[in-house]
Input
Amino acid sequence: MNTTSSRTSWRVIDIIIASVLGVACGLIFWLWNSIGYAWWTAMEAFTPGFGGLAVGVWLIGGVIGGLVIRKPGAALFVEVLAAVVSALLGNQWGIETLYSGLAQGLGAELVFAAFGYRRFTLPVAMLAGAGAAIGAFVLELFTSANFAKSLTFNSIYLSTLIISGVLLAGFLGHWLVQALAKTGALDRFAAGRKRV
Output
């Protein structure tokens, strides 16, 4: 059997678990929509650009998907599905939620791809969180017209987004996957067999 093919080909169980993760993350996003947006608004009132500190929870789906499934497309799939669930349950952003899921998932996916889908350590998870944050930032340059805002705002916003992505998506996502693996729920996956 071709090991490269088995490492990159999705099994039925991969699709099922990725779907479950996507729905679970979507529920987290939906719950975070009110809390996170209130935090974002308060931080923006304090210093414009600091709202980025609240965004990390919305980036966690791609990190968790990549860490658990460990195959091409997993980070993107889980983040987009989570965005779909959040939008279907209702939020203040509507269809833009799907664009966000796509950009954020792609940002995390590119980091896992850069490591050839072979490294799933805490530093890689934190980089994937940062990648998701950069994806969000690039999208919002256009959807939120941030390109028309000051360099100071954009510098602060990008910095806080990355910090939030590293901590709330990367660090917390890695911790959640490790905690789930300890329960035995991931024993059919490499994430359940290798504690990193």
About this structure: The radius of gyration is 16 Å. The chain has one domain: 3-193. The longest helix spans residues 12-46. Residues 3-193 form one domain.
